[in-house]
Amino acid sequence: MSLPVRDTVRLLRIPFSFFLLPLFLLAYSQAEIVVHRQALAAFLIIHLLVYPSSNGYNSYVDRDEESIGGLERPPQPTVWLFYLTIFLDLAATFLALIFVNVVFAGCIVLYIAASRAYSSRQIRLKKYPVAGFLVVVFFQGAFTYYLSVAGVSGSALPLTRENMMILAACSFQIAGAYPLTQVYQHRQDLRDGVVTISYKLGYTGTFVFTAIMFVLCNLFYFMYFRARELGMIFYIIQVFFFPIVAYFGYWFYLVWKDNAHANFRNTMRMNWIAAVCMNGCFLVLIFITRNPLSYISVIETAVPAHCISQEELAAFYSAATSDPLEKRKIRIVAGKTGIENRYSVIGDFGKRAGDFEFFSNSTDLLPEPTLSQRMEYYRRHATRLSMDAVGKIEGFEGRKNTVTHLITVTCTGLFAPGLDIELVRELGLNPTIQRSSINFMGCNAAILALKNADAICRSHPQARVLIVCTELCSIHFQKKFNDDYLLSNLLFADGAAAVIVTSQPETRYAHHVEIDAFDAMLLHQGYTDMAWGLSETGFIMNLSSYVPDLIRDNIRPMLHAVGVRAEDFRHWAVHPGGKRIIDDFALALDLDKCALAPTYNVLRNYGNMSSPTVLFVLKDLLEKAKPEHLSERIFAAAFGPGLSIETMRLRYV
Fold first, then answer.
1. Whether the Cβ atoms of residue 412 and residue 471 lie closer than 8 Å to each other
2. Burial (CB count <10 Å: 0-12, 13-18, 19+), residue 555
3. What gap in Å lies between CA 648 and CA 653, rounded to an integer?
4. CA atoms within 13 A of residue 135's CA, in its CB half-sphere
5. Span of 3-17, 287-301, 467-481 with lowest mean pLDDT
6. What does the DSSP assignment read for 55-67?
7. Beta-bridge partners for 540
8. Could you report the per-residue pLDDT of 134-174, keeping only the tens digit for each?
9. Which of 359, 523, 630, 639 has CB 3.0 to 4.6 Å from 643, enough for a Cys bridge?
10. Could you read off the pLDDT of 336-377 as tens digits, one per residue?
11. Residue 487 and residue 581: Cα distance in Å, rounded?
């Protein structure tokens, strides 16, 4: 490469783009949508065409003889530098239109125009200390972030309250950095007729002004990440800011002692430290936001209006038979369930024959409701109970349009259009919401839904998944007295739970609740011990007394197989499938029964509501979290047909 050509390329100061990279990386980390092909094109256009062209044009006009940003001994420019900058500007605009989008191309044109107005002899904004400063602060700060988002996401940045905060933070960041880049150029600028903001402030004033601007920058970063419920990210930024602040303070001390330290080398050292730290910081943010985790944001629950004591249910059940042996079995099983109360959409359990609304008004409950009648009852009550649970989520009405996915869970009824569509209609959710349903998976289906939500959040950085589990088990109460039905009639109840799972941490609890991992096991030897089918009078239940034995004998080997130790967990949310299941679970893992207090409490107060039950337990657990529980782990488990065990590991973060 000949010397004139090499000097022309040097004056483009392409490596200087590294110092201007942080805001692009920040935009990439915060954009709601990333179109990777466009993002790459935007990156190359900005950093290899636009910034070098701006640097080259400034050098061509100023003809600097002393140090400038990135060059301690700049060569003198030729007319070829001017022609090259024109070519780079045209190429940037054309490529932006072809490979990115119109909004980005328009922003590029405005940025080029501002850059030219700043340097050109005809307008020469740089010679005005305040006007020149404000142009740089706006275009290299907020506007650069705005055009970067347009390039990364393919659309303009909505000017919401939160986005205005980060735009302000970007401009204050440049407002702090820019005067420091001028602090060693006072004499050279004055010879060229340029009075900079740094010259007006003086050496000490420049450092004080920069400190104030960085404080304001930090304040707006805090407000932005707090508004997005991402306060943890703000503190991550502070870790990377520390070396910048440390060197800034040291340099200020040197300049305070001797103004000669306000020189090119110290300025470049400051630039390098700031650029390395900020680029590193925003690369970490990209890793966090573009490799998202998943978090349980909130759990809310709901039960029907009718509260039935275990004594009332046992009396209702006993009244349907005249066989003393069956009455005795009902009384014994009812007393061993560990249940005191439950809730049902059916009010008949607390009434006498003649006042029934769902069952036949006869002492023997015959004829029993048909499957069609039971499904109609489900259809009438399931949506309402689901909405009661969702309605308890604080601020849901104002944020419902941010819900990206809906997962409904049920095994006690079906209709079409289903519960998912009913909820979209009744809650006024976005009609383009992604929907899925988990049906007939039984008591562990909530963990399966959380597993699906976890996968969604890890693949969609802005995902907000609403899970609704609703079961009306009591509508399947049947006049049968074999062991399976004795257990199911006296165990099961009605309830609903709503969960918000997000890819970014936001929570109503003492700590963020991060979803860590899932495990599962099928116990084929229990294939027929927990199952159900359909009949003309409702669901045919198979629920044998061997289920607790199967869980007790297999839960520890299952955990061992996946490298999990019970002693690693302080908190437990176990599905209360029945008192003996809980007792045997604790026995198998050598757990104090106090560790399963939330499970026993839910069983006592609500019974077994199938899929939402483990969420009732988890809600109770999370609401009692304390500050000292930070970093501690939670183990959740539920059991379903097959016999299947589903487990989930969580962590307070």
1. yes
2. buried
3. 16
4. 21
5. 3-17
6. HHHHHHHH---S-
7. 533
8. 999 999 999 999 999 999 988 899 898 999 999 999 999 99
9. 523
10. 999 999 999 999 998 988 899 999 998 889 999 999 999 999
11. 12
Name the band, by pLDDT with cuts 50, 70 and 90, for residue 65: low
pLDDT digits (tens, 9 = 90+) for 394-406: 999 988 999 999 9
Mean pLDDT of the region 588-599: 94
Confidence check: pLDDT of 286 > 70: yes
User: CA Rg, the chain, in Å?
Assistant: 33
**Is residue 410 predicted with pLDDT exceeding 70?**
yes
End-to-end C-alpha distance for the chain, whole angstroms:
56
70 Cβ contact partners less than 8 Å away, ≥ 6 residues apart: 13, 15, 16, 19, 55, 268
Q: Which two tokens stand for residue 431?
A: 């009609």
pLDDT bracket for residue 231 (50, 70, 90): confident
Q: How many CA atoms lie within 13 A of 12 on its CB side?
A: 24
Residue 289 predicted with pLDDT over 90: no
Length of the chain: 653
- H helical segments located in 299-360: 310-318, 324-336
Tell me the pairing of strands 633-640 and 571-574: parallel
Q: Which two tokens stand for residue 306?
A: 């009718």
* Cβ neighbours for 462, distance < 8 A, ≥ 6 positions apart: 32, 33, 404, 503, 504
pLDDT in tens, 35-50: 888 999 999 999 999 9
pTM: 0.68
Q: What is the pLDDT of residue 570?
A: 92
Task: Give the SS3 label for residue 209.
Answer: helix
Pairing label, strands 494-502, 633-640: unpaired
SS3 193: coil
Distance CA 541, CA 476 (A): 9
Q: What is the mean pLDDT of residues 214-218?
A: 95
Inter-residue contact 451 to 391 (CB < 8 Å) = no
Question: What are the C-alpha distances in Å from 46 to residues 24, 98, 281, 558, 568?
Answer: 9, 15, 20, 54, 50
**CA–CA separation, 371 and 476 (whole Å):** 9
Q: Which of 529, 539, 533, 531 is nearest to 480 (CA)?
A: 539
Task: Give the C-alpha separation, 371 to 538, whole Å.
Answer: 5
Residue 608 CA from chain centroid, whole number: 30
**At CA 486, angle to CA 349 and CA 524, rounded to 5?**
130
CB 638 within 8 A of CB 575: yes
- Taking CB atoms within 8 Å and a gap of at least 24, the contacts of 291-294 are 291/458, 292/457, 292/458, 292/460, 292/461, 292/463, 292/503, 292/504, 293/457, 293/458, 293/503, 293/505, 293/514, 293/515, 294/453, 294/454, 294/456, 294/457, 294/458, 294/501, 294/502, 294/503, 294/514, 294/515
Q: Beta strands of 189-262 (E only): which ranges?
A: none
- Output the CA torsion 243→247→248→252 (10° steps): 160
3-class DSSP assignment, residue 612? coil
Q: Single out the residue of 444, 391, 386 nearest to residue 608, CA to CA.
A: 444
473-510 b/e with 16+ CB inside 10 Å = b?
bbbbbbbbbeebbbbbbbbbbbbbbbbbbbbbbbbbbb
Cα–Cα distance, 400 to 228 (Å, whole number) = 15
34: tokens are 């990333």
Amino acid at 505: P
The whole-number pLDDT of residue 68 equals 64
- 8 Å CB contact between 35 and 94: no
